[in-house]
Amino acid sequence: LWTPANIIDDAIDRIHARVGNDQVLLGLSGGVDSAVVAALLTRAIGDRLTCIFVDNGLLRLGEGDQVMATFAQHLGVRVIRVNAEARFLDQLAGIDDPEQKRKLIGATFIDVFEEQAAQLTDIHWLAQGTIYPDVIESAGAGTGKAKVIKSHHNVGGLPEHMQLKLVEPLRELFKDEVRRIGIELGLPTDLVYRHPFPGPGLGVRILGKVTKTAADTLRLADQIFIEELRRADLYDQVAQAFAVFLPVNSVGVVGDNRQYAPVIALRAVETLDFMTARWAHLPYELLDRVCRRIVNEVPNVSRVVYDITGKPPGTIEWE
Ligand code: XMP
């Protein structure tokens, strides 16, 4: 019988059988999947779990602190937080090609993660939040039949020299199942039902070159959009909503002054499978409020636009 409690019991038995009394390492991303793995492993093996959380500087507003509050404080998990913002931004400096940005972010993540892991002794296992759709998608990408539109960096295994064995307790589960066991394990609803966030984070929502100024601007705008969606009770009605930073200057007027500043685009979609999507027909009043708040509260934004492109032809992310 499929109940969250049964799935958890079964997963815990399998984790015990697989890792025995060994120590396990997990990369926490801030997303639902790795969060559920962390909660599951904590239940299964207690303090034999160590997590590494790489803050790449491309997370949403307050996300890093929230991860620490949820896991380190609330669940008592050992979490090593690595502040790697400067390193990621340094690597990304001057790069504007989306796929190259993805590769760099993925590679830098692995470098940082490995350096941290190398300082830990006696760890034999690496846990990952791979879920069933990730398995299918990466299988398809390898056949040459499915066009690889974007490289996802959370699947594909480890560098040879890391020599950790993999434990992937969510490998057979769909997203809604992962969420249900997350709730059963006591994770906060906000975290469990949060919209998906790409591995490269704001790196692919800042079009072109990634800078700290752009990331800070985007974080504030995104936060306002999400806050207003929640306030209007529409957050759970859309599958994904976010702001995008456009490095295009447009003229605006602030007070008595003419401003020549970047544009923020808002994207909200309805979809079940993320393969196709319809742009969310959000109420004009809501869009109006979000726009006013962004232009008034976020420094150096001259204009806000709403993306009305479906998928296809538009992808959900802009890069
Ligand atoms: P697209 O933009 O391809 O997005 O329509 C479909 C879903 O995938 C997410 N996405 C990514 N997730 N790494 C990820 O982990 C990526 O590079 C990446 N690119 C897109 C996107 O947010 C949406 O949910």
Automatic annotation (TrEMBL):
This protein's encoding gene: guaA
GO molecular function: ATP binding; GMP synthase activity
Enzyme category, top tier: ligase
Task performed by this protein: Catalyzes the synthesis of GMP from XMP.
Reaction(s) the record says it catalyses: XMP + L-glutamine + ATP + H2O = GMP + L-glutamate + AMP + diphosphate + 2 H(+)
CC annotations in GO: cytosol
Keyword Membrane in annotation: no
Assembly description: Homodimer.
Source organism phylogeny: Bacteria, Pseudomonadati, Pseudomonadota, Gammaproteobacteria, Chromatiales
Binding site for ATP: 29-35
Protein's name according to its UniProt entry: GMP synthase [glutamine-hydrolyzing]
N-terminal signal peptide: none
Record keywords, A-Z: ATP-binding, Glutamine amidotransferase, GMP biosynthesis, Ligase, Nucleotide-binding, Purine biosynthesis
Portion held of the full protein: 206 to 524 of 524
Organism: Thiospirillum jenense
EC number: 6.3.5.2
Keyword flag Transmembrane helix: no
Start and end residues of each GMPS ATP-PPase domain: 2-194
Pathway: Purine metabolism; GMP biosynthesis; GMP from XMP (L-Gln route): step 1/1
Highest rank taxon of the organism: Bacteria
